[in-house]
Design brief:
It is a single chain. This protein is of the alpha/beta class. 28% of the residues lie in helices and 16% in strands. The chain has a five-stranded mixed beta sheet.
Length: 127
């Protein structure tokens, strides 16, 4: 931040060099107060593991869309993306890894680990 202020001052720039968060328009906001002592229940739900049952995944996707939910798939490789788009052509896909999906308010987030039966193991190396 100091570098930007120095550039602005040195070059006699009057305009802002960065946007304020208030200048960035978004479609929706969910505010979560992690410091609340009221015990707020976010009513988040876990996603089942589909174990490659693509008929069930497609059925649930269509049900959520009819309910007005927005569904995002978090995938990490293009082969998964191609396969999913064959089943659900209108799928919103974000190419990022996510360990597990969830449902929060009107959003359904599904990770690749929720689609396949993936077991995560952590190894410990001892000398």
């Amino acid at each position: 931040m100091m570098i930007l202020l120095n550039i602005k001052k040195t070059n006699d720039i009057k305009e802002d060099l960065m946007y304020s968060l208030d200048d960035i328009k978004d479609n929706d906001k969910i505010f979560i107060n992690l410091f609340s002592t009221d015990g707020i229940d976010l009513k988040a739900q876990s996603i089942i593991n589909y174990k490659e049952n693509f008929l069930k995944l497609e059925s649930d996707y269509n049900k959520w869309i009819k309910e007005g939910k927005i569904v995002y798939f978090y995938l990490s490789n293009n082969n998964e993306k191609k396969q999913l788009l064959k089943i659900i052509p209108s799928a919103h896909i974000i190419m990022k890894e996510l360990e597990h999906g969830f449902i929060l308010d009107k959003y359904v987030i599904i990770s690749e680990n929720d689609i396949e039966d993936v077991k995560v193991t952590h190894g410990v190396y001892k000398k």
